[in-house]
Amino acid sequence: CSSWPPNNPSMERSAMNQDRQATYAALDAWIDQHFDEQVRFLQALVQVPTDTPPGNNAPHAERTAELIQAFGFEAEKHAVPAQEVKDYGMESITNLIVRRPYGPAGSGRTIALNAHGDVVPPGEGWTRDPYGAQIEDGAMYGRATAVSKSDFSTFTFAVRALEAVAKPTQGAIELHFTYDEEFGGLLGPGWLLAQGLTRPDLMIAAGFSYEVVTAHNGCLQMEVTVQGKMAHAAVPHTGVDALQGAVAIMNALYAENVQYRQVTSKVPGIRQPYLNIGRIEGGTNTNVGPGKVVMKLARRMIPEENPAEVEARIRAVITQAVEGFNTERGYGSADALRVDIKRLLLANAMTPLPGNQPLVEAIQQHGEAVFGEKPPAVGTPLYTDVRLYVERGIPGVIYGAGPRTVLESHAKRADERVVLQDLRRATKVIARSLADLMA
After folding, report:
1. CA 316 to chain centre
2. Alpha-carbon distances, residue 173 vs 33, 64, 100, 220 (angstroms)
3. What does the mean pLDDT of the chain come to?
4. Residue 220: which H helix or E strand, with range?
5. H-only helix segments in 80-228
6. What pTM value is reported for the model?
7. 61/58 Cα distance (integer angstroms)
8. With 0-12 CB in 10 A as exposed, 13-18 as middle and 19+ as buried, what is 46?
9. What are residue 14's phi and psi, to 5 degrees?
10. What is the pLDDT of residues 271-288, one digit of tens each?
11. Among 2, 59, 131, 360, which is least packed by CB within 10 angstroms?
12. From the CB of residue 134, how many other CB atoms can be counted at a distance below 10 Å?
């Protein structure tokens, strides 16, 4: 006997595709209907400062937990021990995990969505209140509107839409809201992972809307203390000018950037290494030869470089510069310029794990559908918290709300902003992608 209706794989695929398209349309509609609420949520997050340094970020975590409780989301509050935070150079860190299980444990993938709430201080040059969350010409202005409090809202409202529309029945989603990206992430996601508080199968981290980032640079941060001998400026020969020694070191380090132009990465979106001296402190007064100067530097490493070799090279350059300075001035061992070199941070580069392909494919598919162009899978010269997940074998990508470039967003500069249309559309892309990944 024959069955009715007849088996027709083509018809079944067509029906499944229609169902998926209907789900995508319903997700989009839910996000549109709740977008004003999402904007207000982001404004409330931006209006609580999280300048790092000094890094007093626990109050923002408390406010975030309070706001999402209104959505039925309970946030686990994981406070990093105070002494550990203080030793690290910050004041307070409370990381949040929001767990949303949709079926029995082990019934499907657990996907983490991570965004960081700590930000660099506003600095000068703002034409709007850095913490006003002012909306003007379709964009919201304020520190962290683009990086990355915007994706607190992107990820939260994408999950809300998913639960309201797609109603997943297996797997789980976790929201990771952390507060140590600016200092390197070790007390943010790194701390949650090291404590065994989370172990997702896949993860998406805060990013921008027009590309899927699958790789990024590493970064080596070092502190160089140049020790000389103070002297009255009227009798400079009685001292050893630490600032002059620091200038010799800086010239030697910056000369390395010329050599780095010959070193290029094969990862699209990443060019060459770069060394930056970002902070200098020293001296006591204009009529005193400085006896001590402290410099902090950052060396961006492309994925192809070996971090141990990079650090050894920098130490050698500094040592040779000091030896040359002492020899040129005829200083003996008793009055020679001395230097102490300390590593502050070693952030490894992120390289793609094979398991990230479902993330890349889903985001590219829905990015093209929502934005009208397929976001390329590329690398970025930044370094991020995602490396901490990838180092533990958790495939991850970077995607979220924002423009095509960091420059356009004004991240870490005056008048940082996010275009609200990018925020809306990125939320749809994440919600659609989660619907596919949780199916």
Report:
1. 30
2. 23, 18, 5, 32
3. 94
4. strand 218-227
5. 82-88, 149-165, 189-194
6. 0.88
7. 5
8. buried
9. -65, -40
10. 999 999 999 999 999 999
11. 2
12. 17
